[in-house]
UniProtKB/TrEMBL annotation:
The lineage of its organism: Bacteria, Bacillati, Bacillota, Bacilli, Bacillales. PANTHER family: MOLYBDOPTERIN SYNTHASE SULFUR CARRIER SUBUNIT. It comes from Gracilibacillus dipsosauri. The gene is moaD. Pfam families: ThiS. This is Molybdopterin synthase sulfur carrier subunit. GO terms for molecular function: nucleotide binding.
Amino acid sequence: MIEILLFAQLQEDAGTDKLLIDGDGWTVKKLKNQLITQYQLLQVEQSMVAINEAYALDSDEIHSGDIVAIIPPVSGG
């Protein structure tokens, strides 16, 4: 299982701060597509992704046991 940590608006949209998905060997891009399709988390497309606390590219692979953080763009004032 992959543990997915959600922040800010993504957390509000999903109604939780954490998701568990069985996606061993998926790329970051495939995970993003799954989150958009299954949970309607449209902001995922513009979000930064970190795998085990290291920023990741869309082509990077995710493995069972990884912790993936999805950090949407934020604005402040």
